Prior knowledge:
Oligomer: single chain
Strand order of the largest sheet: 1-2
Number of domains: 1
Largest sheet: 2 strands, parallel
CATH topology: Rossmann fold
Strand content: 5-15%
Mean pLDDT: 93
Structural class: alpha+beta
CATH class: Alpha Beta
CATH superfamily: Glycogen Phosphorylase B
Helix content: 55-70%
Amino acid sequence: MLESLSCETPVVAFSVGGIPDVVKDNVNGKLAPANDTKRLAEAILHMITNPQKRADMAKKAGKRC
């Protein structure tokens, strides 16, 4: 996750452990509730189908770490 953000790549992950401390939902990535695979799939599709939002998140991702 940290390597992804440092390379300006938004993260899609479950909101578990220390991930929410670094990944801010809809800022530098998308978070899904723990074990909610449907929401995780929706977050992935959102990133794929919204290139402008993904680009905006990418800029913020590099500044987070």
